[in-house]
């Protein structure tokens, strides 16, 4: 067993190593690990060498929302690259001129926060679809799981990466570009198996102004009426739908989930750039209606909280009216301070021309919600997010249909909510009948019953391509970047 002193001995004076009890941001995982902050290539190489010598494994961390399956195992090394400096350029570098496809390009060090990227975009009047404003998220999060906004016409951010530099298990700084499509398809959703990402070059879009329209309508009219949804999606550049469930539920009366109100946020290109509203609504205001003591979360309290949250969100949005914003302000945001220890679960589906998949998926969700409600169980108490995006041109990312579009449905609940496991298990079993469904890799996919069987059966071809590309790149000859979960879920033969 390696202890802190032995590892520090191997590393020499820098970087410093700390044995810490690491808890991920959603508080679903807690384990004793070695944490090391690295600032340059030499320090990365030093850590990798020590890991090879001592038989330890290494996984990087960004914002640390990582689901259990992506966390480092007990006693292994977690590398933080938040302050990493590039040896041959600034942390954020805008390149001169245009690339051969006519785009401005930038290179960003992996640990730069997405908030800093946003400031950079505003300064240069440029934009990378899929980036969020959050300071807790980092540039490489756009790649590893990978991140998307809710623009059906825009792909996930990773699809705009044209070059990635990473450090392999032998400490070599390597470069791949979209001239090698298989290598990039591996990289663009790599679950941390890519070696250590050093920097990423992205193709950017011009910054635009958008109009944001907020509306509250019921689930039936918004999500189950495919004609209405078609026009909503056709009109807007982006449509985000947030559902605080049970908001039409009254105790003692039958509840129809289809009657709940959902917040539909439509983002359209703006005609004018005159009136600029700085910020969008912060979810933190919605969640102020939740009690601090989780033990008090009786069904009555929960339902009351989600109902008041939905009502107040609707009122706050009404006061604000229609707004014109920079696109960087308008896209999705999650409270900077994670409001509660929370579960998350989600799937992506290819979007068909008629949007029947949306209806099917939401109907399955409503049926399960109703079934549980009849047993007086309220398993989903933070929110349900419905989003639409393009693909990410990767082996493991969402499969797309309808001109390259995908539907994403995320469910979020406070940790320890009664019925969560049972509910998500039942819903996943329904959703897994859609063979082209893909787990949202940034959620707790690994704990869903039968996930391994589903993945091995329905993603066999993609997993084989993923593993082959990784092997051919010879990223990890020393088996440093693996963890037990990924080994068992994606790599074990039987
Ligand atoms: C409640 C909630 C709601 C969300 N909603 C959305 C949404 O609407 N749309 C969306 O796109 N995303 C959403 N996300 C995902 C989120 O935006 C992040 O993309 C995701 O959580 C991963 O970011 P992270 O900083 O936490 O990465 P981490 O969890 O820290 O890391 C993710 C993976 O990347 C690896 N990694 C980190 N750094 C490196 C590196 N330098 N080199 C190699 N590997 C590395 C880690 O080992 C890990 O495997 C949501 C997440 C939560 C928790």
From TrEMBL:
<dbReference type="GO" id="GO:0071949">
    <property type="term" value="F:FAD binding"/>
</dbReference>
<dbReference type="InterPro" id="IPR036318">
    <property type="entry name" value="FAD-bd_PCMH-like_sf"/>
</dbReference>
<dbReference type="GO" id="GO:0016899">
    <property type="term" value="F:oxidoreductase activity, acting on the CH-OH group of donors, oxygen as acceptor"/>
</dbReference>
<dbReference type="InterPro" id="IPR016166">
    <property type="entry name" value="FAD-bd_PCMH"/>
</dbReference>
<protein>
    <recommendedName>
        <fullName>FAD-binding PCMH-type domain-containing protein</fullName>
    </recommendedName>
</protein>
<dbReference type="InterPro" id="IPR016169">
    <property type="entry name" value="FAD-bd_PCMH_sub2"/>
</dbReference>
<feature type="domain" description="FAD-binding PCMH-type">
    <location>
        <begin position="22"/>
        <end position="207"/>
    </location>
</feature>
<dbReference type="InterPro" id="IPR010031">
    <property type="entry name" value="FAD_lactone_oxidase-like"/>
</dbReference>
């Amino acid at each position: 067993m390696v202890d802190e002193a032995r590892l520090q001995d191997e590393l020499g004076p820098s970087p410093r190593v700390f044995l810490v009890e690491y808890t991920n941001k959603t508080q679903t995982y807690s384990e004793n690990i070695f944490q090391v902050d690295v600032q340059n290539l030499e320090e990365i190489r030093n850590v990798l060498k020590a890991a090879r010598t001592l038989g330890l494994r290494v996984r990087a961390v960004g914002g640390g929302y990582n689901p259990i399956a992506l966390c480092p195992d007990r006693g292994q090394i977690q590398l933080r690259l938040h302050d990493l400096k590039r040896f041959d350029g600034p942390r954020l570098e805008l390149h001169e001129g245009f690339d051969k496809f006519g785009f401005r390009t930038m290179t960003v060090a992996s640990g730069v926060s997405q908030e800093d990227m946003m400031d950079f975009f505003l300064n240069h009047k440029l934009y990378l679809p899929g980036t969020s404003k959050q300071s807790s998220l980092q540039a490489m999060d756009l790649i590893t799981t990978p991140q998307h906004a809710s623009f059906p016409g825009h792909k996930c951010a990773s699809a705009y990466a044209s070059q990635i530099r990473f450090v392999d298990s032998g400490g070599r700084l390597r470069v791949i570009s979209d001239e090698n499509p298989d290598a990039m398809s591996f990289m663009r959703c790599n679950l941390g198996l890519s070696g250590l990402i050093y920097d990423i070059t992205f193709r950017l879009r011009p910054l635009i102004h958008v109009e944001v329209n907020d509306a509250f309508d019921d689930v039936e009219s918004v999500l189950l009426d495919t004609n209405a949804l078609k026009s909503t999606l056709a009109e807007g550049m982006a449509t985000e739908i947030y559902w605080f469930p049970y908001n039409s539920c009254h105790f003692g009366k039958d509840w129809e989930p289809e009657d709940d109100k959902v917040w539909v946020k439509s983002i359209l290109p703006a005609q004018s750039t005159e009136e600029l509203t700085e910020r969008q609504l912060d979810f933190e205001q919605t969640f102020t209606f939740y009690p601090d003591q989780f033990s008090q979360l009786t069904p009555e309290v929960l339902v009351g909280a989600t109902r008041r949250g939905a009502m107040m969100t609707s009122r706050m949005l009404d006061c604000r009216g229609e707004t014109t914003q920079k696109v960087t302000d308008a896209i999705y945001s999650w409270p900077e301070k994670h409001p509660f220890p929370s579960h998350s679960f989600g799937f992506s589906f290819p979007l068909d021309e008629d949007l029947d998949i949306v209806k099917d998926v939401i109907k399955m969700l409503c049926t399960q919600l109703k079934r549980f409600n009849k047993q007086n169980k309220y398993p989903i108490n933070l929110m349900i997010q419905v989003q639409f995006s393009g693909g990410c041109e990767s082996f493991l990312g969402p499969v797309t249909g309808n001109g390259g579009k995908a539907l994403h449905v995320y469910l979020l609940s406070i940790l320890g909510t009664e019925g969560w496991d049972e509910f998500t298990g039942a819903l996943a079993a329904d959703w897994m009948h859609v063979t082209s469904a893909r787990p949202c890799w940034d959620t707790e996919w690994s704990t869903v019953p039968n996930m391994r069987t589903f993945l091995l059966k329905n993603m066999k071809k993609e997993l084989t391509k993923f593993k082959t590309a990784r092997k051919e790149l010879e990223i990890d000859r020393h088996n440093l970047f693996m963890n037990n979960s990924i080994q068992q879920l994606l790599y074990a033969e039987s």
